[in-house]
Amino acid sequence: MNFLLSVSYAIQAGDEFKLPTDFPSLRIDDLTNNSAYAFTGALGISSSGRDYYGSGAALSRNWVLSAGHNVDFNDDGSPDSWLTIDYHLPSGSSRFLVVQILKRAAK
Predict the structure, then answer these.
(1) 3-state DSSP call for residue 24?
(2) How far is it, in rounded angstroms, from Cα 13 to Cα 27?
(3) Are 63 and 4 spatial neighbours (Cβ–Cβ below 8 Å)?
(4) Cα–Cα distance measured from residue 9 to residue 31, given in angstroms and rounded to the nearest whole number
(5) Which helix (H) or strand (E) holds 27?
(6) Residue ranges of the chain whose pLDDT lies below 50
(7) What pLDDT is attached to residue 13?
(8) Strand order in the sheet with 40-47
C-alpha cells in the first residue's frame, strides 16, 4: 500500500538556521518625535462635563483622521457640535484644539 504525504514548511522569522534577536525593548516604540508612529495621537473629548478618550492619526498639520464614534455620541450619523476635542501627539509637547469636524460623504 502506498501513501502520499504532503509536507509544508514555513519560516516565521529570521532565516532557515537563525532566529532574530528579540527583546521587549525592540518591540515597544518609545513614541518620540523620531518614532515611526509619532503621527498617532490621543483625542481628549469632553461632552456635558464627562471626559472620553479616543485615538487619531495626524494626516498633516491641519488634518486628523479618527473613527466616527469618537465624535457622534448621539448616534445620529453626524458629528456632535457641543464636543470639545483636544488632540495630543505622543511627544507630549504638542496639543491642538479641534475646531472643525468634517464627515466623509457617503458613496
Answers:
(1) helix
(2) 14
(3) no
(4) 36
(5) helix 24-27
(6) none
(7) 63
(8) 64-66, 50-58, 40-47, 84-88, 95-98
Q: Which amino acid is at 5?
A: L
The answer to whether the pTM exceeds 0.90 is no
Q: Is 71 exposed, middle or buried (0-12, 13-18, 19+ CB in 10 A)?
A: buried
Is 44 within 8 Å of 86 (Cβ atoms)? yes
The C-alpha cell 525593548 sits at: 25
Residue 92's pLDDT is what?
Answer: 65
pLDDT at position 4 is 55
d(CA 8, CA 13): 16
**How many residues would you count in the chain?**
107
Specify the residue for cell string 502520499.
4
pLDDT value for 76: 86
